[in-house]
TrEMBL record:
Broadest EC class assigned to this enzyme: transferase
EC number(s) reported in the record: 2.3.1.47
Protein name as catalogued: 8-amino-7-oxononanoate synthase
Organism: Thermosulfurimonas dismutans
Subunit composition and interactions: Homodimer.
Gene Ontology molecular function: 8-amino-7-oxononanoate synthase activity; pyridoxal phosphate binding
UniProt KW keywords: Biotin biosynthesis, Membrane, Pyridoxal phosphate, Transferase, Transmembrane, Transmembrane helix
Cofactor(s) the record lists: pyridoxal 5'-phosphate
Source taxonomy: Bacteria, Pseudomonadati, Thermodesulfobacteriota, Thermodesulfobacteria, Thermodesulfobacteriales
């Protein structure tokens, strides 16, 4: 048995797909210390630079005193401490709809799909959605139909053919896609969802904090917030904390409280974490300068790499550099590491076969001169002997 497990690991190694943990010894702004060396961290989702700058410690000490460290139980038992209500009220005020906190984005996506959909239902999903959404679809037991990335004509074809066969239907997308940094036409998606009586579920994990006048996401930026039926956001990325939220109409929220297993059967978040999430949310809403800064840096890096710099898509702080073969992505990543940049290779199954890449993600606290240095190294790598 042991040997068989080792063989499986060796097979991953042979394919260049074995993953290994790396220890971060310290953090300072967008820098991380690994094996004694400071590296510019291009692999974090800390778009506003908040996660390295914790909120007021005195408030946290008070909360620790009042609620202790662990919540001790699931929310439906005795884990629903007062900080949850505060955070959900703030979200409801901002989004204009009830909110429900989950313990992470992964758990929120499992819960939304498995709580909303069952065997009689159908989920129409973009092919490149995040693993947590794919797992949620599987867990739901619903039929699922996946359309080619961003191809809304193909989606409409599937809706025409299959919508009538199911009770409830969901159209599922990310707003900003985590590995590609692109986004769908949300307005056209909302029209399809109305026309085919499907609920529009949008995962805004990578857009909350970066887009929208109040940081609420791409739906806010594009003026379609009220047409999204279920919006998922996470506190672990731009908001610099941990946990996640869903905003949806009251009946959907109630159904999730009753049906979402990843909500019901897990210990509630510690009060200090929920307080951190609330602080992150408030900071993000007010962070006009940082939002502008990270979007400007995104365009700056794209320009330095010779990539298109037109439109909103050039302001997404996720810059994919697609290198193809796994080993090529690994070797470019290793060379960047030697030069002082942490940009791990992203390989299948996280991305489709043959599209291994570096996913460069930016933070408002980075400096232009560091990004210029990065672009110089990358240009060499892309045009060098390995290209
Ligand atoms: C699109 C998307 N949704 C959800 C998640 C999960 O969020 P969390 O890290 O809060 O579990 C991620 C993060 O990896 C993501 O990229």
């Amino acid at each position: 048995m042991n040997e068989e497990i080792w063989r499986e690991l060796e097979e991953l190694e042979r394919k260049g797909r074995r993953r290994r943990l790396r220890t971060v010894e310290a953090r300072r702004g967008p820098w991380v210390r690994v094996s004694g060396r400071w590296l510019l961290n291009l692999s974090s989702n800390d778009y506003l630079g908040f996660s390295a700058e914790p909120p007021e410690i005195s408030a946290l000490a008070e909360i620790l005193e009042r609620f202790g460290l662990g919540a001790g139980a699931a929310r439906l038992l005795s884990g629903n401490h007062a900080l949850y209500a505060e955070l959900e009220e703030e979200l409801a005020r901002l989004y204009g709809r009830p909110a429900l906190i989950f313990s992470s984005g992964y758990l929120a996506n499992l819960g939304v799909l498995s709580g909303l959909c069952g065997r009689r239902d159908a989920i129409f999903s973009d092919k490149l959605v995040h693993a947590s959404l794919i797992d949620g679809m599987r867990l739901s037991g619903a039929a699922f139909y996946r359309y080619p990335h961003l191809d809304l004509e193909a989606l409409e074809g599937l809706l025409k053919k299959y919508r009538g066969k199911h009770r409830r239907a969901v159209i599922l997308t990310e707003s900003v896609f985590s590995m590609d940094g692109d986004f769908p036409d949300l307005s056209a998606l909302s029209e399809l969802s109305a026309r085919y009586e499907a609920l529009l579920v949008v995962d805004e994990a990578h857009a909350v904090g970066v887009f929208g006048e109040r940081s609420l996401g791409l739906s806010e930026e594009l003026g379609v917030l009220s047409r999204v039926d279920v919006l998922v956001g996470t506190f672990g990325k731009a908001l610099g904390s941990y946990g996640a939220f869903v905003v949806a109409r009251e009946e959907i929220r109630e159904l999730l409280v009753n049906r979402a297993r990843s909500f019901i059967f897990t210990t509630a978040l510690p009060a200090v974490v929920v307080a951190g999430a609330l602080a992150g949310l408030k900071r993000a809403v007010a962070a006009v300068d940082r939002r502008g800064r990270v979007r400007k840096l995104s365009r700056f890096l794209r320009k330095a790499l010779g990539l298109p710099t037109e439109g909103l898509s050039s302001e997404v702080p996720i810059v994919p550099v697609i290198l193809g073969e796994d080993r090529r992505a690994l070797s470019v990543s290793e060379r960047l590491y030697e030069a002082g940049f942490l940009a791990p290779a992203i390989r299948p199954p996280t991305v489709p076969e043959g599209t291994a890449r570096l996913r460069l993600s930016l933070s408002a606290t980075m400096e232009e001169h560091d990004l210029l240095r990065l672009a110089d190294h990358l240009k060499d790598e892309i045009c060098g002997p390995h290209s």
